[in-house]
Fold:
Amino acid sequence: MYKTTVFLITLFVIFYRYPLAAQPDLKTRDLVTGLDTPWELYWVPDDYIWLTERYGRVSRVNPQSGELTEILRLPEVLEDGERGLMGMVLHPQFYTNVPEIPNYPYVYLIYNYGTKADSKVKIVRYTYSDNKLTSPLEIMTNIPGAWNHDGSRLWINPGDWTLYVTMGDAAVSERAQNLSSLNGKILRMNLDGSIPSDNPFPNSYVWSWGHRNPQGLVVVNGKMYSSEHGPDTDDELNIIQKGMNYGWPNVHGYCDLPAEKTFCETNGIIEPIAVWTPTIAVAGIDYYDNDLIPEWKNSILLVALKSSKLVQMKLNENGNQVISQNDYFKFKFGRLRDVCVSPGGKVYIATSNKDGRGNPGQNDDRIIEITPSTLKKNDGETGNINYKIYPNPFSDNIYFNSDFINTNCSVSIFDFLGNKIKDLKNNYWDGTDEFGISVDNGIYFIKFNYNTFTHLEKIVKVGL
Structure:
């Protein structure tokens, strides 16, 4: 009895640490299929998505048609384990579209090279011209790498044009607390690879330290957020501060164990703003603040590999606390590596099912577009679905009414686990109907489809 009670309490802590906010109705579509371990998704001012694939390819994707164009192939990339071609960032003035402001068509890539026994990481600048990346210029080389824990997300500060680089501990935990090592750090450098004079430690690239394997990076309203892999406990979301120590390997997650408390007090450790135990294998992150999905405004979006989901974390007004958290698409698409947000508010996620740890499906790997579930009205405008399902709860018959276009519609019922019970109506539906549903008491879902649009509604069957 004691073990059962402890287990239930543990579940309560895991699932109710953050309150659940309202969840929007969403639809997805495969934008691109047949990829091989995409790592970075980047929305570019030319209104294309650029992506890296770990084996060494950089491509541009038309977000409307899904057409993919290869712009670089790197034969020297060393890909195995977790290493390969990883992060990418464009110069802040890559494409200005303003004659008075010069363009700098530079793209920065970070990847593993060398041999399996002696893996290194380098940062290289390329120039974009005529739909190709050319003229490589090495910015930094010979960063120690490993089979895993190479970090490698990039960001350029548009204010001072300094480059930030997340570096994992390269599977040697002690490096994270060693300021003479580049591993287990977030680095900051000028775009020519030199050390900025205002870095926190003299003649050092180190911006922050005590990191295990940070793989997500986004800057919002002056705050730098980074997601970081824990061992088998304590994945983290951190706010990165100049010159500060984040504790690894002496601290896992919060400063809550006796030895951790002592180390934190002595070394001024910065605690994360969110922790996951057991780990979910946190990866790429982005910030959402668009009206297209209003429930997600002022949120960090994070994708996870091991638990295969998108996590939406609503921030408080100051951006220093997570006030609610919702999970989406858990185990639906497999392992998820990165997420990016378009200026119009559409969200794109990349699967990582061919990375050696996933189970690739027929179309993997993929880029998946996420938008609200909306329907087109008879006048051609787009708006939220106008529907009525009644009564709910129901005991025998249930009625469904909608004023949307009535051709090519279907209505189906699913059980709580997502198994289809039956198709209630198919095609050329007159918009109002009565369904007699012979099912056991419980929770079900009615799914309404019109062309590519979907709406899902929970219904409850109760006995007479």
Notes: The chain has two helices and 33 strands. The first strand starts at residue 26 and ends at 32. The helical segments are 2-16, 258-267. The CA atoms of residues 59 and 163 lie 22 Å apart.
